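for the recovery benchmark. tokens below, seq after
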């Protein structure tokens, strides 16, 4: 029992130390993770894309385009993640520029396209985080 408690205490200390070292990057991790998961959802469930007219405008009904939108989100998130992991400023800036562009496009597209939806609010939050990251890099 003492060994288990000691191991748990060591794990907790390791997590706290990791959090202290990476605290300033938490917004970047949130943007990367959310963008990647959003792209994965679009890729795995391309039928989601057919429900909104904004996607119909972009893809003109082609399923291949639907899958490519998801892959695009995942690829951009991976570019940013690799840049952050390797501390490569060119990749970091490229990634955040692309993320800002994609989330701006989504914000405008969902805000102006019928039917009324709430996806634009999520896009706005992601864009705000992207802009904060862009300013700090």
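predicted aa per position
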């Amino acid at each position: 029992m003492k060994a288990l408690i000691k191991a748990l205490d060591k794990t907790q200390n390791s997590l706290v130390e990791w959090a202290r070292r990476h605290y300033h990057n938490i917004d970047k991790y949130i943007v990367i993770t959310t963008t990647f998961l959003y792209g994965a959802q679009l890729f795995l469930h391309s039928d989601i894309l057919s429900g909104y007219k904004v996607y119909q405008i972009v893809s003109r009904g082609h399923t291949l385009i639907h899958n490519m939108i998801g892959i695009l989100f995942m690829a951009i998130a991976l570019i940013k993640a690799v840049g952050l992991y390797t501390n490569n400023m060119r990749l970091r800036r490229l990634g955040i520029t692309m993320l800002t562009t994609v989330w701006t496009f989504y914000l405008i597209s969902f805000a102006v396209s019928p039917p009324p939806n709430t996806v634009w609010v999520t896009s706005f939050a992601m864009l705000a985080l992207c802009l904060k990251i862009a300013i700090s890099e």
